[in-house]
Sequence to fold (63 residues):
Amino acid sequence: MEDWGINSSTQTKTWYQEQAVLHVSLGNFLFFAILALIMIGVKDQNDRRDSWHHGGWIAKMVI
Fold:
């Protein structure tokens, strides 16, 4: 079976597991990197963006 240009008959279960870990790690990195960039310049809790950092847990979990 060919999927995404990968011949699955030559790939082991370990390879697929490693790819899954790498994809999840990349997703986590991008999420926190974007959040960090958004937070640049927040000096106190009165800034509207501060609520994005400390709240919105449901939206963060969905993302």
